[in-house]
Amino acid sequence: MPRYLMLSVIALGAAGAAGWLMTTAGAQRESTPESIDIAQGENLYIENCASCHGANLEGQPDWRSPGPDGLLPAPPHDETGHTWHHPDGVLFDYTKLGGRAALALQGVEFESGMPGFGDQLSDAEIWNIISYVKSTWPERQRAVQAERSAAAAAGR
Ligand code: HEC
């Protein structure tokens, strides 16, 4: 296992198992569309994602601990969360298919509170949302995530 995966497992603690699986799982979507519309992504984020992940991408309180229903709360998408630990393909699948279906594709059984948006949002819209989220990260997180996306796309 590459060193950064081990580090993220250690750093994530309770959410580590899911985080690790998502880092290694995730079908790859070849490329993002040529014309990314970050402004549209932001609007779509507010309409579809902010209710759980927060208007400022701050996530829900105590997101590392499962709630009474056994499900993990919605994590932040800002640099305090682990969204930036995952390559593009994983973020795309998680958004399009929902957490459970995205992980089931990889043979991983995991109850997830993340719904799938494949019926409501086009692929281009999902990429725009992901691009908006990424545009809010500081340079270091963006660089790390870009490297992981490149590695995943290259099958490394
Ligand atoms: C009903 C609440 C809810 C809504 C709405 C929602 N999510 Fe989530 N999301 C969750 C939860 C809960 C998780 C943690 C899932 C898990 O444990 O698998 C999550 C996880 C994720 C993850 C992977 C976790 C990570 O590492 O950050 C991504 C990516 C994600 N959501 C994107 C989105 C996007 C994009 C939208 C809007 C299109 C959205 N979510 C809308 C609840 C929600």
Automatic annotation (TrEMBL):
Secretion signal, residue range per the UniProt entry: 1-27
Pfam families the record matches: Cytochrom_C (PF00034)
Top-level division of the source organism's lineage: Bacteria
InterPro entries: Cyt_c-like_dom, Cyt_c-like_dom_sf, Cyt_C_IC, Cytochrome_c-type_DH
An example Gene Ontology molecular-function term: heme binding
Co-factor(s): heme c
Domain Cytochrome c: 36-137
Keywords for the protein's UniProt record, in alphabetical order: Electron transport, Heme, Iron, Metal-binding, Respiratory chain, Signal, Transport
Disordered: annotated span: 59-84
Protein name, entry field: Cytochrome c, mono-and diheme variants
